From TrEMBL:
Name this protein carries in UniProt: CheW-like domain-containing protein
Coiled coil start-end: none
Pfam families: CheW
Annotated SUPFAM superfamilies: CheW-like
Species this protein is from: candidate division WOR-3 bacterium
Length: 176
């Protein structure tokens, strides 16, 4: 379809774009989330923050790391630190790790250990909410909001901020 310029009654060329000035609904880009369990709690992360999801991995213990690091994972010859989200979030549970979500931030990869398989969903399949005021300032740094999916509320974790924020928060609170 060609857009042709028209002349008005004075011989001037009319702007062909003016014909398209009717209201246009702005389309939001649909997000994808990876939903998983940590203990009995459900969380999710934006798919854009995930480098890889591992189902078959071996954790090599490393004693010199803080307690919430379980050790390192060999990812095709690269050592990736593995963070126990249960310990980091202070969740008491005796469930075993099933999946490692590898995130990349500032060219560093970190594995986050979760207790369930990961379900990939679209934002159109859930309802999202802003983070309520009941969360502390520290929690608000690593939680982006909440989604309701399959009748349950699920916290949206900002993986890029989570480790930094929670590490600072835990070390400050443990020294009191």
């Amino acid at each position: 379809m060609a857009i042709r310029s028209k002349k008005d009654n004075k011989g001037k060329i009319k702007n062909p774009v003016s014909a398209f000035k009717s209201p246009v609904k702005k389309l939001e880009e649909e997000k994808g989330y990876a939903v998983f369990a940590v203990g009995n709690e459900f969380y999710c992360v934006n798919l854009d923050s995930i480098f890889e999801i591992l189902h078959d991995f071996v954790i090599v213990p490393a004693s010199h790391l803080p307690e919430y690091f379980e050790g390192v994972i060999n990812l095709r010859g690269e050592s990736i630190p593995a963070v126990n989200l249960k310990k980091l979030l202070n969740i008491v549970s005796d469930t075993n790790f099933q999946v490692c979500i590898v995130s990349i931030s500032a060219s560093e990869k970190i594995g986050f250990l979760v207790d369930s398989d990961v379900e990939i969903i679209k934002s159109s399949e859930c309802q999202s909410f802003a983070l309520p005021d009941c969360f502390s300032a520290e929690e608000q740094k690593f939680l982006e909001g909440i989604i309701e999916y399959k009748g349950r509320l699920t916290g949206i974790i900002k993986l890029n901020q989570a480790l930094k924020t929670l590490t600072e928060w835990r070390s400050k609170n443990e020294n009191k």
